[in-house]
Structures are given as structure tokens and as C-alpha cells.
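The pair is listed for reference:
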Amino acid sequence: MRKLRSWIIPLLLLFLVLYPDTRVWILRGLMKVGLFSPSVKAPEATADDFSSVAFSNEKGEVVTLGSLKGKVVVINFWATWCPPCRAEMPSLQAMYERWKEHPGFVFLAVDADHQLEKANTFLQKNDYTFRAYQQVSPVPASLAGNTLPETVVLDKDGKLVFRHVGMANYDSGDFHGLMEKLLAR
């Protein structure tokens, strides 16, 4: 029995390495119990103008953040290989479903790998209804750093009002409250 116990942890670790979806499943479970709720405190104020930051979709259509002024823009930077990114996807889908019909709401799921076909195949395979974008211009560090996942929200004036680095549950009351407040303005 003692030998069996000494093998359990190494076997579990090996299982986690060989099957990355297991990590995603564990992370989603931790999110559901409230361990990864985003803090809706305003980020440090920045005077940066993000209007020239541009993204494109699989059709090659380019959207600049300047063209989205007057709308609340949620941007999630992610990658298909990133377990925390994949773990938060169901909460992003729920957030998207809740607000997608609102005329003042835009959601951009930005694939950090610039592989839109692969990203959209992943989204479709997993029944996510939003589409992937890729950046086509530099993104200032004040908008997005080098960590995945990262989610930011711009208000209707194009000002950064929310930034969360790491995975989070965006189908939460606090985040919905922030969105309601921003969309009502």
C-alpha cells in the first residue's frame, strides 16, 4: 500500500502533462468555486490613445479601436495552446451571449498566435459563437502585456476602464455589473 501511495502523485503529474485538457478541467472547476473572479477596480489611469490599434478577422476585415468609439469594447488576448485561456472560454462565451445583442457592445477575442484559421476551428469545435481576431498593428503595453490570457475593457470614449491579467470568470455578478454600468452611459 505504501508503494502505491508513493506512485500516486507522480502518476497524477504525468497525467496532467500528457493530457492538457485535464488542466483546463481543473482550472474551470476552480473558477466555478469563485477562486478566479476578476477585480472590477479601475486600472491605473493612462492617457494613451488606442484609436489606431487595429485587428482583423478571418475575412481580412480590419477594425480599429477608434472606429468603435461609442461602444463598450471587451478584448480578450488568448491562444489555443494556453490552458488558462481555454479554461476561461466558457465564461467568455456566457458573457458574449449575454451582451451580443446590445448595440453598444463589441467583443474581440484576439488570437496571440496570429493563426486565425486554427483559432476559429478551435472556437467552432468547442461551440463558441464568437470569432477570433488578430492584431494588425502594434498594441501598446498599457493595453496588453505579454501574459495570456489578458482581458481589457474600453468604455465608450475608448478609455481603458478594466484590465485583468490571467484567467477569470467573466460570467460573474461583479463583471456584469461593470458592463451594465458602462453600457447604460
